[in-house]
Amino acid sequence: MATDPDLFSAITPEPQPSEVALALRAQLNHWAHQYYVLDEPTVPDAEYDRVFRELQALEAAHPDLVTPDSPTQRVIGAVMEGLAPVRHTVPMLSIHTETDTEATGAQAFDARVRRELGLADADPAIEYVAEPKFDGLAMSLRYENGRLVQAATRGDGEVGEDVTHNIRTIRQIPLTLPSGVPPLLEVRGEVYMRRADFDALNERQREQGGKTFVNPRNAAAGAVRQLDSNITAQRPLSFFAYGLGAITPPAEGGPVFRTHYEMLQTLKSWGFPVATQVQIAVDATELVAFHQQVGASRDALPYDIDGVVYKVNSLQLQRDLGFKTREPRWAVAHKYPAQEMATKIEGIDVQVGRTGKITPVARLAPVFVGGVTVTNATLHNLFEIRKKGVRVGDTVIVRRAGDVIPEVVGVMPGNRTGYVPNFQMPTACPVCGSAVVREKGEANHRCTGGLFCAAQRKEAILHFAARRAMDIEGLGDKLVDQLVDANVIRTLPDLYRLGLTSLIALERMAEKSAQNVLAALEKSKQTTLPRFLFGLGLRHVGEATAKDLAKHFGTLDAIMDASVEQLLEVNDVGPVVAQSLHTFFAQPHNREVVEQLRACGVTWPEGPVAERAPQILAGKTVVLTGTLPTLSREAAKDMLEAAGAKVAGSVSKKTSYVVAGAEAGSKLAKAEELGVPVLDEAGMLALLSGAGAGAGA
Ligand code: JCF
Questions:
Q1: pLDDT attached to residue 321
Q2: Contact between 434 and 427 (Cβ < 8 Å)
Q3: Which of 62, 206, 356, 546 makes the best surface tag, with the fewest CB within 10 Å?
């Protein structure tokens, strides 16, 4: 039995099965309380599952040990004080997990379905629907006469919690449905948080010294179960619909939908977000192919999935198959490798980034997580280390999801033996020896060496050369290391002064590769203003801001000479960015770098400000919804913004116009409710050219 020895340190010498069961239950209940009630999990799900299975195995071997209150005997979902209980009219099912992640898992499911339906080998293949399994929390949305009246969590499947006030803040969830929907309709799906939203939320929390969340699912769960919906509204949530609960049949009776797939398409047409990766599959082979295909795209998805779900497509066959306790016989989940695992911290190093930020990095005992072996994980900053209580030697939870940098999200409690000193930040930069400081109100420590610090120089050059900046092919970290270490390059313009001789003098640099590097440098000189601006690597100036600045000012000189007030006029530029830009270009040495780069031949087309489209829609807010007949959403947004409009995501009293295309949903309804003028694409184009002066410009 693979039991954590620490768990039983008090039980010697040979623990009785009853004692083991007791300890396992105590451990599981403790973890479950932290997870469900406190919203603060301390162990990875995989660890919980392992101990849960161990208890299950023990109870199977000793049935007399099973108690009614054992975690194996119920689905845990403590109702938090303050949220009203909601009894589900149709129980919310969980889904059986096929633990076998090989092809046999899908085959076993298909074989089971066929056997239960009494089919022979010669009978035709069963049609399935395969879809991603989102890693969020299940939600039941109740609509009466097309209006959202109640939203409830799953809870134990029978009774959940009323979270209507919070769910109303989720923009992706329609509050009203188009006419003609069943008078009673319960839509079921998953509330989740997109990875980028999660990262931004944690970054914000970290900067403000607030509580960070261990993963998007935990952040979503915490947001949904707030008593104050103002807090929920600040935590960006999303939703995918995947099923139905109670539904009134249409007046003429009979089933509303024939298949699960048809039901999903209908939900989509009613304005619900439905997974894009949904596929009909006719046998186990196609199910496995789907599992592999989605698995390959898993890292690129903007949200976490923990597996895929296979469902029998025919709703009649689903009814024939029925349920086993709380799990349908017609569906199964096929999981992917866990994105959180436990491992030991062997040491803590620090790294110096482009802006001088000193990041503590945990050196780990190698662990397979999120599909790769991880040996390093970020600890973000000293505050995070203190808050999480991380020390060298601790067993920690490491998370790696998507192509996000692996991070230490928490410490497994009670595994420290003996005294370990707290980690301290170095007072001098490990790379250049300059003083390390932390500014007031900042969570991060920084090296004050600036471009004197080789680490910052290297990062600055790599950023400048990056694909989305100057796109200098072949200038990767190895070459930059060599160039900076050999002191061949001290500033960005030095790149364009590189000659064949100094390149060939580097180790492992053949003449052909040197020529390629020079050619790539030459090619990079023809660039665009946004790429150049982004490449300079100013704090707070990402790609989007660089584009906005270029669009607004037209020329680099106009940007360099802009006052803070003028910078603030740019879309999405706030006081912090404006001040940072102004300060940067006020430094003579920064202007010098720009001038030298230009002198080296770096150039881009400039558009004088006068040529900008007339600002017909200055001060107006426009919301786009639905699919326009000819313009993409991006193109429409660009045109509106070029005319001075602000393009917003949700409709309010302050919205000037809603531009609606096909399959417009709740935003259109909201506009009509508030009396906001609604335009189609033609109407929008007329508006853009309508004020006369700017026609055709
Ligand atoms: O995405 C999910 N987490 C998910 C959960 C998707 C489904 O289609 C489900 C589910 C739980 C139960 N279907 C059932 C029946």
A1: 95
A2: no
A3: 62
